[in-house]
């Protein structure tokens, strides 16, 4: 009987960024240990809807298929998550797939995450070191700091935390939890601390830290379990100190 079992999906589709969304229902043969990605691949091989009508294959993003790249984010049964780790056996049917609403839709389940990447540029979420020559060994980070910093470095820019955050929307400039957490990560690095004040000033601007409503949806939805709210709390302290330094004209660390 297992060979006759099917998995039903209801997908929100959109043919172009400017077109209206609509739903499509289809079914694919069930296999043990299927995830949402493998079901979409099966539908791509035989793109017919539930009535047997030939339709265009569904468009979605994917890359690593092991919850590392963050590309395959979508809303599955109302919850933003990675589709590569969404196992069919653990999902209620029919399985509903929607694009994340925080980002503009490109087509079907594909979205443009430019908003998040622009925010990472705004906070300079990198360590700017000029030149390709050997600079010698860098400063060492204490082991206790390295351990929690490693947890922050797990961010894969999947956008799930921004989708879950009620303060990230089309009417708000809030940069969201992921870029904020990256500020804490790079400011903690001994070399990255050179630009600490610049990053803190960036998140003290419009759309920065004060736009966080502390709903804590981000930390609950993060597929990597990153302590986003802990970072936000730490940044509140750091920006308070930075504001005093700015006021008194102090550039001391």
Automatic annotation (TrEMBL):
Its cofactor is [3Fe-4S] cluster; [2Fe-2S] cluster; [4Fe-4S] cluster. It is an enzyme of class 1 (oxidoreductase). One of its GO terms (molecular function) is metal ion binding. Keywords: 2Fe-2S, 3Fe-4S, 4Fe-4S, Iron, Iron-sulfur, Metal-binding, Oxidoreductase, Tricarboxylic acid cycle. Residues 146-174 form the 4Fe-4S ferredoxin-type domain. PROSITE patterns: 4FE4S_FER_1, 4FE4S_FER_2. The keyword DNA damage does not apply. GO terms for biological process: respiratory electron transport chain; tricarboxylic acid cycle. This is succinate dehydrogenase.
């Amino acid at each position: 009987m297992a060979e006759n079992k099917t998995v039903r999906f209801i997908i929100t589709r959109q043919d172009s960024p400017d077109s209206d969304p609509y739903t499509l229902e289809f079914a694919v043969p069930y296999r043990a240990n299927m995830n949402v990605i493998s079901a979409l691949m099966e539908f791509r091989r035989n793109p017919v809807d539930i009535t047997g009508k030939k339709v265009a294959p569904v468009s979605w993003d994917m890359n690593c298929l092991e919850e590392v790249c963050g590309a395959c984010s979508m809303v599955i049964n109302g919850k933003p998550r990675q589709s590569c780790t969404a196992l069919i056996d653990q999902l209620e049917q029919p399985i509903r797939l929607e694009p994340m609403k925080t980002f503009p839709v490109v087509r079907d389940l594909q979205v443009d995450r430019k908003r998040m990447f622009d925010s990472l540029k705004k906070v300079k979420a990198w360590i700017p070191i000029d030149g390709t020559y050997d600079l010698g060994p860098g400063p060492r980070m204490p082991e206790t700091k390295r351990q929690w910093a490693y947890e922050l470095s797990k961010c894969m820019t999947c956008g799930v935390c921004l989708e879950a955050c009620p303060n990230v929307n089309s009417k708000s400039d809030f940069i969201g939890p992921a870029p904020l957490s990256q500020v804490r990560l790079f400011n903690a690095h001994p070399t990255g601390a050179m630009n600490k004040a610049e990053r803190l000033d960036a998140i003290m601007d419009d759309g920065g830290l004060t736009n966080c409503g502390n709903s804590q949806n981000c930390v609950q939805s993060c597929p990597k379990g990153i302590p986003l709210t802990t970072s936000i709390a730490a940044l509140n302290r750091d920006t308070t100190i930075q504001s005093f330094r700015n006021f008194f004209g102090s550039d001391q660390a």
